[in-house]
Amino acid sequence: MATPFIITLDGPAGVGKSTLAKRLADHFEIAYLDTGAMFRATAWKLGEGSWDWDIDKIEAALKELTFTLTGSGSESVLSLNGVALTNDIRTETVGMWASNFAQIPVVRAYQKIAQRKIGETTSLIAEGRDMGTVIFPQAPCKFFLDAALEERARRRYEQLEEMGKPADIKELIEQIRTRDDKDRNRKEAPLKPADDGIIVDTTNLDIDSVFDRLVAEVKKISA
Ligand code: DC
Known about the structure:
Blueprint: E1 6-10, H1 17-28, E2 31-34, H2 35-46, H3 55-62, E3 67-70, E4 77-80, E5 83-84, H4 92-101, H5 105-121, E6 124-128, H6 131-135, E7 141-146, H7 149-162, H8 169-185, E8 198-201, H9 207-222
Parallel strand pairs: 1-6, 1-7, 2-6, 7-8
Antiparallel strand pairs: 3-4, 4-5
Helix pairs in contact: 1-9, 2-4, 4-8, 7-8
The protein binds 2'-deoxycytidine-5'-monophosphate.
Residues 13, 35-37, 39-40, 95, 98-99, 102, 128-130, 179, 183 line the site of 2'-deoxycytidine-5'-monophosphate.
């Protein structure tokens, strides 16, 4: 079997990673792995406050969680214990729970094993915070997207509205700022570009321009 081809896409909350990752996955006909959804689903399943449990209890709970990825492109389906994840995990509140969980080394260790296992057999575009730095550092195409906080909050606002989950823009700015600080400053696998990654500031770019740029970079690298 040929070695799976992996593209990594990291960046802070609301930068547009999911939209771009799905489009890239469709374009290159590979699977889409949303690792933020894995952290969100873990937090959602274990429940509010579970990140404060003692480590043995957290580890026992993690052992009961199995993630699988099926399908391809934007139709890729991530499931937890055989049940497809839904938009219930997409709120900013669950994002914050996920960020709390993401600080815990044992949680990251489990996620690392699960994510690498998926990447062993499947060509993917892997979206998250540490895809290029920790999980798939050998990937040929590693991207880091960034954008100004207010612009990211605006994008997230629109995304939540589309899902029928309206939010308050001022509250979103504060929630995203807090989550970013946590994700960038944590000890383990902090949010940052890979040393050999390509950084794209998308503040003043529309989604089509970013997409075209990423496609061109992938083609250049894989030519
Ligand atoms: O991408 P997202 O907003 O769905 O991610 C939710 C949280 O999960 C994010 O704030 C930090 C954590 N996360 C992480 O630590 N590492 C990843 N690879 C993906 C997400």
